[in-house]
Amino acid sequence: MDIVKRGETRLDTPRRKKKRKENKKGLFEIYLSEKTLKDYFFYLNDFLMYIYDSGTPIQNDEVIGLMSDITDEDVEDYLSHLLYERKMKKTSVNKVISALKSLYKELEKHGVHNPFKFIKLFKTSRNLDNILKVSFEDIQNILNTYKVYDDKGYRNYMILYTLFYTGMRSQELLNIKYSNILRRDDSYFLKLEKTKSGREQYKPLHELLVEKLSEYKNYVMGMYSYIESDIEELYIFPSSFEKNTKLSYAALYKIVQEMGKTIGMEISPHNIRHAIATELSANGADIIEIRDFLGHADTKVTEVYINAKSLLDKTVISKIPTYSHEHKK
User: Fold this and answer.
1) What is the rounded average pLDDT of the residues 246-271?
2) Which of 124, 172, 188, 292 could bond 168 through an S-S bridge, CB–CB 3.0 to 4.6 Å?
């Protein structure tokens, strides 16, 4: 029996291998999206490797057992390690805490002690430089400057256009198919099946985007001789049109980055999300409207865009009196 040691005075629960259940989703897969799980398990693996200090990789079938034996003291020890030994920024530590809180919240539903339940995030200030990095005018300039020569160029153009007019997260955009575009009377909606929260969401589509997506769809159908029934289950923004393979996040990031370079800017897909949120706030949308449009679970996350709007609002500056007295020599 393999006993995992931590320090000189403590013995932890033995690792026991469990029979793998075929054709069934794991506990966390039921609640969390694929992208979220990948990020969360990166943090979880680091956490467990530190606590158990075994020097051997954590196996999938022992994760829940190891998590079940974690104490409140273990959590304090780990967070102290991140802050004072690794010297991680509080914003980075908050990402770790948020991930582990979410995973333990699901285990708690099944009777497992949650050592992260009362752990609070560190207070940090949001980086408004990043929030305000890309403006509506910047997006327009990129779209006007970017040259479309082929089907993938057209795809890239529509990716940027869609990111701005929907404010979607990257993973949401990568997963959408033509069947996700729904119509009711003269209104169109986008059904998001794989969201950060794991719940389905519906996003209204701007009439300009509907028109652009329709033109793009007709182009793809003509280029590859698709009929309407063929195209419904295809990805809107695939890696390969012929094979209908899903675009990766790395490829999406590179596409947006290269498009930004056409006007000399370093940008990411998330900068586009910031741009539409800030634009909504600047044009009078309230915090609830922006929260629902972006799919935030809490208005606290949305408040940063209201703060950004106040910086962009020039009304208060116009009330400063102009000093026009000339200096006498």
Assistant:
1) 91
2) 172
